[in-house]
Amino acid sequence: MQITMLGTGHAMVTECYNTCFALEESNHYFLVDGGGGSTILRQLKHAGINGKDIKHIFVTHKHIDHLTGIIWMIRTICQSMNQGEYEGEVLIYAHAELTEMIYEISNMLLQKKETRLLGERVHLIPVSDGDEVEILGRRTTFFDIQSTKAKQYGFCMYLENDEKLTCCGDEPYKECERKYVQGSKWLMHEAFCLYREADLFRPYEKQHSTVREACQTAERLGVKNLLLYHTEDHHIKERKKLYHAEGSQYFHGRLYIPDDLERLVL
């Protein structure tokens, strides 16, 4: 299995795209979030990912830097279906409030020839805390991260030998997530900025964490590989070096700070 980071930045970045990514197994894709706009289509193109191969999509929460690109994905997939170029169906998972919102926005903004496919071949599937589905042949559990900003879900995907890939959304780890995060082979965790620059970027006001804190969490919970995303972009050219220098003081597994369009083998 591989992961392609289509975007790595927080909501207001201009030097990279908003955080979203795709997991791939045997040329089938699971898209997680869509970023803030039509740039999702550009990122998929430059990553060499054909939208016709995306059969599963998960939307973590309603913030525009995660949601708006999904509307573009629905439009693109529906157009491909109408042209006879998309085989089968697409399943879009989100919590119930969000599936309703996606349905309403799609009907307000897209054409009837596209929205007629909602419920027919484009399925909006509401998920609750602890729900399990199979995605890319892997058992996947969705969980409520108990955000106080906007309802948000993460997920845990089981790899070979019951190893776990866990995504905590774009907020700091909470104890309610322990059974998913602890011992994960891969943990995807936000890191808004360096700890030494917390006064500059004020991550705590936005309910985000720093590199240091994300790494301390991963170390404490026995994570093997830590992938940091949803960052500021002021240090975009030196981000890898600076974040790794700070993070490696607190986390002794493998630490990844990917750039947009970077692909990793899991």
Brief summary:
It is globular, with a radius of gyration of 18 Å.
| Backbone shape | globular
Structural class: alpha/beta
Strand element count: 14
In round numbers, the mean pLDDT is 97
- SSE run: EEEHEHEHHEEEEEHEHHEHEE
Strand order of the largest sheet: 6-5-4-3-2-1-14
> CA-to-CA gap between the ends?
6 Å
Number of H- or I-type helical stretches: 8
Strand-residue proportion? 25-35%
In angstroms, what is the radius of gyration? 18 Å
Range of helix content: 25-40%
Low-confidence stretches: none
Q: Any overview of this molecule?
A:
The protein is α/β, with parallel strands linked by helices and 266 residues long. Helices cover 27% and strands 27% of the residues. The chain has helices at 39-47, 64-82, 96-109, 112-115, 178-181, 198-201, 211-220, 239-247, and strands spanning 2-7, 20-25, 28-32, 54-58, 90-95, 122-127, 132-135, 138-144, 153-158, 164-167, 186-190, 225-229, 254-256, 263-265.
Which features does this protein show?
seven-stranded mixed sheet; 14 strands; 266 residues
List the helices and strands and how they pair.
Elements: E1 2-7, E2 20-25, E3 28-32, H1 39-47, E4 54-58, H2 64-82, E5 90-95, H3 96-109, H4 112-115, E6 122-127, E7 132-135, E8 138-144, E9 153-158, E10 164-167, H5 178-181, E11 186-190, H6 198-201, H7 211-220, E12 225-229, H8 239-247, E13 254-256, E14 263-265
Parallel strand pairs: 3-4, 4-5, 5-6, 10-11, 11-12, 12-13
Antiparallel strand pairs: 1-2, 1-14, 2-3, 7-8, 8-9, 9-10
